[in-house]
Write a structure and sequence with these properties.
This protein has about 80 residues and is α+β, with helices and mostly antiparallel strands. The chain is built from 2 helices and 5 strands.
């Protein structure tokens, strides 16, 4: 789903994009996630990591077609509309 915009950031009009590196397991779930590119706001960075943990992905496949773990980079944007 979409990231939950932190109330404190929304109230201050803070926007930004957080780059998150995630380790996706063979089942498509996120085993670990960390910020690789900060939005400049710790609240947004934390919210981005939390939302990525809730996402599911199509697992990667190795050269034999078996599901495998892999790292991906994901931009998570917070924009006031």
């Amino acid at each position: 789903g979409n990231p939950v915009y932190p109330d404190s950031a929304r109230a201050q009009g803070i926007q930004g994009t957080v780059y998150v590196r995630a380790l996706v397991n063979a089942g498509g779930k996120v085993d670990s996630a960390s910020v690789t590119g900060s939005s400049g706001n710790a609240v947004l960075d934390s919210a981005a990591v939390q939302v990525v943990y809730g996402w599911s992905f199509s697992p990667a496949r190795d050269r034999y077609g078996a599901r495998c773990r892999c790292y991906i980079s994901i931009p998570v944007s917070f924009c006031l509309r």
